[in-house]
Amino acid sequence: MVISEEYSFDKRIDNKEKLNDVIKEIKSMNDVDKEIFLRKFYLDQSSKIISEKMGLKDKFINLRIFRGRKKLQKKFNIGE
Fold first, then answer.
1. What is the CA radius of gyration of the chain?
2. Which of 35, 49, 51, 80 is the most exposed place for a label (fewest CB within 10 A)?
3. Which residue range or ranges hold the RNA polymerase sigma factor 70 region 4 type domain (predicted)?
4. Considering only CA atoms, which of 65, 75, 69, 72 is closest in space to residue 36?
5. Dihedral (CA of 3, 4, 5, 6) sign
6. 26, exposed or middle or buried, with CB in 10 Å at 0-12, 13-18, 19+?
7. pTM of the predicted structure, to 2 decimals
């Protein structure tokens, strides 16, 4: 049990550090991309709602999300 508890604790710490790194990377994005990411992944808004609120086209929102996710995946070696 002790080993399992230590592993679980270490895994939570590691996940928290990774999350902080991702948040830091999102904060370094330009203002438009940052707002899109916060609305999409923090506020759980649809691309349609984001486009209406920001006065941008749906396709633009989806493209920025796609490119931003790709950049994050490359930076953190995720999904390759």
1. 16
2. 80
3. 22-72
4. 65
5. positive
6. middle
7. 0.77
